[in-house]
Amino acid sequence: MALRLINIGFGNVVSANRIISIVSPESAPIKRIISVARDNNKLIDATYGRRTRAVIIADSDHVILSAVQPETVGQRVISSDDISYEG
Q: What is d(CA 85, CA 48) in angstroms, rounded to the nearest whole number?
């Protein structure tokens, strides 16, 4: 199985195989998920101080914040231009 890494902005990458969902941070339930992840030390902030535009939820219960639009991250997941490593 190949390791597929997805660029989530500013040179940060996430394993595509671990992503459950990519959502917008605007709704109250997503804000609650972010708050719970912060309290449980499962929040990864990859925004570099910029506005959060996408929330990536991983199968390890980690929540990753990105400054890239959810649609852009989603397109990168399904794109064949992703970086792949055979392992």
A: 27
- Residue 43 near residue 33, CB atoms below 8 Å: no
What the block records as the tokens of 36 is 């719970």
For residue 7, report the phi and psi dihedrals to the nearest 5 degrees.
-75, 125
The predicted-structure confidence for 27-49, as pLDDT tens digits, reads as follows 999 999 999 999 999 999 999 99
Residue 17 has pLDDT above 70, yes or no: yes
Q: How many other CB atoms sit within 10 Å of the CB of residue 76?
A: 20
Are the CB atoms for 15 and 85 separated by under 8 Å? no
Reading the block at residue 86, the tokens are 């055979």
Per 3-state DSSP, the chain is made up of helix, strand and coil in percentages (nearest 5) of 30, 40, 35
pTM of the model: 0.88
